[in-house]
Amino acid sequence: MKKLLPNLVSIFLGFTFWTAGMVKLYAGHQFIGWIGPPWLVERLAEYDLGLYASFIAICQITIGFALLTTRYKLLGGIMMVPMILNILMVTISQHWRGTPYVLAVLLAMDVYLLWQYRDFFLPLVEEGENGGRLAQRKKRSWQGHLIWLAGLALQLISVPVSFVGVPVAFAIAGSGLIIAVLSFRVDLISLGKTARQSVN
């Protein structure tokens, strides 16, 4: 339960922001998701901020995907703080009622997630000084990182493909998600081979 809850929070936050970014960029906004608005790019384009809105959407996809796959919970959680604050400023400046409260709840969930990695933050504040031993966590392989990046790349590739055919774009995005989750399996295989080679 100690590890399950942070993973569930990570998956929920990841799904929320991954889908929020995808729906903004997909053709006809034909993507799943519960948080919006999907037409943000078009709305901000009226103020010559369309590129900024697209940048926010790509950040939502990247950060959300990192959390959804749970591979980069710490990195995704850190990057999510300024992203949520940026979105919060937009919603306040546009006088959107209710949305700031939803964002406040999501920010609180992100803070909870970051609290699970509090042993990392003192060395950051002290700029290299380790104020205590870091908790042991699972090792990762560079092969696993590359596989995850391939999964992320498929998410971004699916966006322009959605303008040709949404079902095909869904298939690409789904494949990317499966590939990214399999990166953990790649870690086990790669690190297992390394361990056997070091013994031999």
Structural write-up:
- With 200 residues, the protein is an all-alpha fold.
- The chain has two domains: 137 residues, no CATH class; 63 residues.
- 72% of the residues lie in helices and 0% in strands.
- It has nine helices and no strands.
- Helix 4 runs antiparallel to helix 5 and helix 7 runs antiparallel to helix 8.
- The mean pLDDT is 88.
Short characterization:
The chain has 200 residues and is mainly alpha-helical.
The fraction of residues in strands falls at under 5%
Segments where pLDDT lies below 50 for 5+ residues? none
Q: Main beta sheet, described?
A: none
Distance between the termini: 38 Å
List the helices and strands in order: HHHHHHHHH
Query: What oligomeric assembly is this protein in?
Result: single chain
> How big is the Rg?
19 Å
- Average pLDDT score: 88
Count of spatially separate domains: 2
Keywords: Membrane, Transmembrane, Transmembrane helix
Protein name: DoxX family protein
Transmembrane segments: 51-68, 75-92, 98-115, 146-163, 169-188
Topology:
Layout: H1 4-25, H2 40-45, H3 50-68, H4 73-93, H5 99-115, H6 121-125, H7 142-161, H8 166-181, H9 183-199
Tags for this model:
72% helix; DoxX family protein; globular; transmembrane; membrane; mainly alpha; 0% strand; 2 domains
